[in-house]
Amino acid sequence: MKHLIAIFSLVFFLFPLNYNTEADQIVGIWFTENSEAKVEIYKKEKKYFGKIIWSKSIELGEADGIDSKNPNENLRNRKLIGLNILSEFEYNGNNVWEDGEVYDPENGKTYRCKITLQKDKKTLNVRGFIGFSLMGRTTVWRKAE
């Protein structure tokens, strides 16, 4: 009986660790589509967020580096570097993070979003949508190495 309790305790305590490890696979730095920017995905409490940490157009001087397209006038002067563009994602199993939003600073719009980590563990499909995910657009991000 003692062995059964020990085995149950071990499984009970290790399962959450494996679940968190699987859920944390997206934590790190990712290149957005066409390597236009780098986004750092991080975990805060039990949710996942992503902030811009580098932008090619800002580095080349092609962009002013502020959130000028934001629909809220009071936010138009905030810097893009350090800006959270992914927010409130929850891990739902099967390499899918949902119930979050993605902000597009190029047009100032926020969309519901679903993130899927591909089998290679180096590619993310980031799908922004309005309403249902069938009506949306997917961009492909790759892990920065």
What can you see in these coordinates?
The protein is an alpha+beta fold and 145 residues long. An 8-stranded antiparallel beta barrel has the order 1-2-3-4-5-6-7-8. A hairpin with a 4-residue loop joins strand 5 and strand 6. The N terminus is likely disordered.
Q: What keywords describe this structure?
A:
145 residues, alpha+beta, 2 helices, 8 strands, 18% helix, globular, disordered N terminus
> Portion of residues in helices?
10-25%
- Architecture, CATH level 2? Beta Barrel
Low-confidence stretches: 3-19
Taking the sheet with the most strands, its summary is: 8 strands, antiparallel, barrel
Widest sheet: strand ordering: 1-2-3-4-5-6-7-8
CATH secondary-structure class: Mainly Beta
Number of domains: 1
Q: Determine the mean pLDDT.
A: 89
CATH domain topology: Lipocalin
Number of helices: 2
Overall form? globular
User: Which value, in Å, is the CA radius of gyration?
Assistant: 18 Å
The end-to-end span amounts to 48 Å
Task: Report the strand count.
Answer: 8
Tell me the series of helices and strands, N- to C-terminal: HEEEHEEEEE
Oligomeric status of the shown chains? single chain
Furnish the topology, listing elements before pairings.
Blueprint: H1 2-23, E1 28-31, E2 37-44, E3 47-55, H2 56-59, E4 84-91, E5 96-104, E6 109-117, E7 123-129, E8 136-143
Antiparallel strand pairs: 1-2, 1-8, 2-3, 3-4, 4-5, 5-6, 6-7, 7-8
Question: Brief overview, please?
Answer:
With 145 residues, the chain is an alpha+beta fold. 18% of the residues lie in helices and 43% in strands.
